[in-house]
Amino acid sequence: MQRRNTLFPMAIISISSFFLVAMGQLQVNGFTDLKQSKFLFCDSQEIAVGFFKKNKLELNPLNLSLKIEDIHNCSYSKEKKLIIAAVSNRQFAQHEILFINPNNGLVNVLMKQEIIYHVSISNSGENIVFTAPPTKGDNGVSLYLYDLEKGLIHLLVADEVHRLSIPSWSIDGKKIVYHDIHNQIICVNFSTGEKREIFTTGEFPVFSPFNANQIAYIKDGRIYIWDFMTKASKEIFRSNWFWQSEPFGRLSWSINGKYIIFCRATGLTGYKKTFYAVNVKDKKVMKIYEGYIKELQFM
């Protein structure tokens, strides 16, 4: 599987320059209600909340109470209305997990350790999972569960999770899905630690925000939806032209379940990304953003 970016790209761009990028118009059949969605942006040092206004995406950069040097990834709890981020703190040569209030930018440090790769918070905000050492080879890392109410950390999976994988929670908070070092998609019941392989190959799985029995994932440059109940998959996107780069990285599913955001790496360095929304029902695709950012996801 060809890679087009690295774990922590160092390209930095001011969030204010996002306004200079021409955005896709929403006068496209199948996308008119996309402007009702709310979006979370992050680059290496800044986080913004965005929404469509007059058919263009407008951003409200958060005035963070703590300077952040390098964001690995962000995750959002809809019930708690809380952003959580895995970041690097170069001054103290450590990684941190931060709680961020999207209303006032207040930042609190949850935990610190030498290495943290990615973090994901459950919809209820009661638990988080994160990836960290011990590692295996170049890509294998471990998955941990942090029970926020009890303040306890448990090892769920040892050195099998792919270093680039961002774990995803089911809407009911009972299951976690990720891809491993063999590009197998694995589902874990966090309360029992029971693991179940779903596919032979696949990457970057993400649970549906309204259906705990469905996930979206990338395989061979195409995007599919898998249903646990029917045990069937449906292709919703494939590249039409050989010169187009394949979808890569985190997928994000809209709250109403109608759209999935994916990105392609563009430009000579691969740091520049173009983000698209695909309509799950009719498979129509619309470009919504292009720029040097790490993530764009639905809130």
Can you describe what's shown?
The chain has 299 residues and is an all-beta fold. The chain has one domain (15-298): Neuraminidase, CATH 2.120.10.30. Helix content is 0%, strand content 50%. The chain has no helices and 24 strands. A four-stranded antiparallel sheet has the order 3-2-1-24, with no helix packed on it. Strands 4-5-6-7 form a four-stranded antiparallel sheet, with no helix packed on it. A four-stranded antiparallel sheet has the order 8-9-10-11, with no helix packed on it. The protein is globular and about 45 Å long. The two termini are 29 Å apart. 41% of the residues are buried. Mean pLDDT is 85; it is low at 1-27.
Please name the defining characteristics of this protein.
299 residues, mainly beta, Neuraminidase, 4-stranded antiparallel sheet, 24 strands, 0% helix, 50% strand, disordered N terminus
What's the topology here?
Layout: E1 38-42, E2 47-53, E3 56-61, E4 70-77, E5 82-89, E6 94-100, E7 107-113, E8 119-121, E9 127-136, E10 140-147, E11 152-162, E12 168-169, E13 175-179, E14 185-189, E15 194-197, E16 203-207, E17 214-219, E18 222-227, E19 232-238, E20 252-253, E21 259-266, E22 272-279, E23 285-291, E24 295-298
Question: What does this entry show, briefly?
Answer:
This protein has 299 residues and is mostly beta strands. The protein contains no helices and 24 strands.
